[in-house]
Design a protein that fits this description.
mainly alpha
């Protein structure tokens, strides 16, 4: 058997919110309070009318009783699950970029370990790459030659090396039958 609705002191506030509601969630919250109190509907009937689950109707009523109005939180905006702000990320990456500009190499493994230590938890390797990408780092194109290669010796070898023997032209052709 369902309980009778309580909270008649909130009825006047709910009626005022019903008139001033600007979003669907605010309207539903006011209706979740008004319908059981004014019309004696059960929570199940109220949920059916509002098109929400019983547990959500109960949450709307409880939040209204606490003074929490629906959709009062700020909109999420961009990057809702960010680990650090853009300024914090730039500050974090500054020593790595300084080292790279002085001739060093950006080692993503080092950056990932430092990021894990800064956040206090493990992160995916992709997080480090995404962090670098957001701050303008691009993976350089590979060199055509090894930095320590002896270029004159390689050119000399190309000029003086024997070309591989090719199969004879006869061996590669199919014999045609005449006749």
């Amino acid at each position: 058997m369902s309980m009778t609705a309580r909270g008649h002191e909130a009825l006047k506030r709910a009626e005022a919110q019903l008139i001033q509601a600007k979003t669907v969630e605010q309207l539903r919250q006011a209706q979740a309070v008004i319908l059981p109190l004014s019309y004696g509907l059960s929570l199940e009937q109220t949920a059916d009318i509002l098109g929400i689950s019983v547990s959500w109707a109960c949450k709307l009523r409880t939040r209204f009783a606490r003074g929490e109005l629906a959709n009062r939180c700020a909109p999420r905006g961009h990057r809702p699950r960010q680990n650090m702000s853009m300024e914090d990320e730039a500050e974090f990456l500054a020593p790595f970029f300084e080292k790279a500009s002085a001739g060093g190499i950006l080692v993503v493994g080092e950056i990932k370990r430092a990021l894990d230590a800064r956040l206090g938890r493990k992160t995916a390797l992709a997080s480090a790459y995404n962090l670098l990408h957001r701050h303008g780092w691009r993976k350089p194109a590979p060199d055509k030659r090894h930095p320590k290669a002896d270029v004159p010796a390689q050119e000399e070898w190309k000029k003086n090396s024997k070309t591989p023997s090719r199969k004879s032209a006869k061996a590669g052709r199919a014999k045609s039958r005449s006749g």
